[in-house]
Design a protein that fits this description.
By secondary structure, the protein is of the alpha/beta class. The protein is built from 15 helices and 16 strands. Helices cover about 35% and strands about 15% of the residues. The strands form four sheets. A six-stranded parallel β-sheet has the order 4-3-7-8-9-10, with helices on both faces. It has a six-stranded parallel β-sheet with strand order 13-12-11-14-15-16, with helices on both faces. Strands 1-2 form a two-stranded antiparallel ribbon. The longest helix has 15 residues.
Length: about 375
């Protein structure tokens, strides 16, 4: 994690009066995390919560993740592999009461998040939230409806809490400009042992493909703006590593692109490390864990200069990629990236620092 983000908030939380206070060092917390996104989904929100939970437990804290796997579910419209909890309030209330948390954190704004906020308001409990996904922009892209309508609802949802965590400074500034209050920095980390340049040694992840290899890794969905990458006239080969609702259509539309499907573990890490440039075409991601994973594998990044890349790629000590409104220009410039500089930049981020900052942002439940 960049030191500046940690220094701004070290040791501070917001108590019931809205003032800043310091929590006792070494105190064991009971933390309930409510999330509509959970395994077997494959996305940044799930990876963040899963890794955060492991770090917090390793630090001695007691963490309960309340997710759709405990409830009857229905498929999410347009995303059938994402399951949404059906009428979760009563079961959620029982589970929260049985766990008796010191803190409640609501990670998503779906049915479980809404039920969690409703329960907290009824009991006079304080809670924190996280703004992790620009759903208004996704919905606007799919429906043509104004994103401002959906931001108004999200603003009301998050402002009922006592702190909204955001992954980047630019996102925080944007949300504050939209009327979100108590916005708090909470950056992300990367598993530096799993994602390393060495993982590709001796592995030909892209057999027979011409170099250079420009690779996208992530969910294959319309909001990721993947076609902006696939349309580019670039030397070598284009690769898409991942799966999602747009994959079949893109494979048909771009027969010259190599689609590998989803990869996991060492195979995923090697997919980053074996590429010459990691291309991140998204215009709406709030952070982009994949950026850190690529850099940790020594692979330079090409991206638009938007929230996420603009923050993650800031102040590098060396050439780690390129950002440009012309994505093709960014891709070509990123070819000159330095593997050692990429790795060194990724080493500024750790999951332990992420977990510590999360703890500092929490608020006491404190029943009224």
């Amino acid at each position: 994690m960049p030191d500046s983000a940690l220094d701004r908030t070290a040791g501070l939380v917001i108590d019931a009066s809205g003032t800043q206070s310091t929590l006792p060092a070494g105190e064991v917390r009971r933390i309930a995390i409510i999330s509509d996104a959970w395994m077997p989904q494959v996305n940044g929100v799930v990876r963040t919560i899963a890794t955060l939970t492991r770090e917090l437990r390793a630090m001695g804290h007691v963490v309960e993740v309340i997710a759709p796997d405990r409830f009857r579910t229905v498929p999410c419209p347009t995303y059938p592999d994402i399951r949404l909890a059906l009428k979760p309030f009563r079961r959620l209330r029982r589970d929260i009461e049985a766990f008796a948390p010191d803190h409640i954190h609501i990670a998503t704004e779906g049915p479980l998040g809404i039920a969690g906020a409703r329960l907290a308001r009824r009991r006079g409990w304080q809670f924190t939230t996280c703004f992790a996904t620009k759903f208004p922009d996704y919905i606007a892209a799919r429906t043509g409806l104004p994103a401002s309508w959906f931001y108004a609802w999200l603003r009301r949802f998050h402002n009922r809490g006592f702190g909204t965590m955001v992954a980047t400074a630019s996102l925080g500034n944007e949300l504050q400009g939209r009327g979100f209050r108590e916005v708090r920095p909470w950056t992300r980390g990367v598993d530096l042992a799993a994602f390393t340049p060495d993982v590709a040694d001796g592995k030909d992840m892209y057999p027979g493909l011409a170099r250079p290899i420009f690779a996208y890794v992530g969910r294959v969905a319309v909001e990721k703006n993947i076609e902006a990458f696939l349309r580019l006239d670039l030397p070598g080969s284009k690769v898409v590593v991942g799966d999602g609702p747009q994959r079949a259509g893109l494979e048909k539309a771009y027969p010259g692109v190599h689609f590998t499907g989803a990869r996991f573990g060492a195979e995923l890490a090697a997919s980053y490390a074996a590429a010459d440039v990691f291309v991140f075409p998204s215009l709406t991601d709030t952070f982009g864990l994949v950026l850190l994973e690529a850099l940790a594998c020594g692979t330079p990044v090409a991206a638009y200069p938007v929230t996420g890349p603009r923050d993650v790629l800031a102040n590098p000590a060396g050439h780690i990629g390129a950002m440009d409104d012309d994505l093709r220009a960014a891709c070509l410039a990123a070819l000159a990236g330095d593997q050692l500089a990429c790795r060194a930049h990724a080493e500024r981020f750790s999951w332990r620092a992420c977990a510590e900052l999360f703890l500092q942002n929490l608020v006491r439940l404190r029943e009224a």
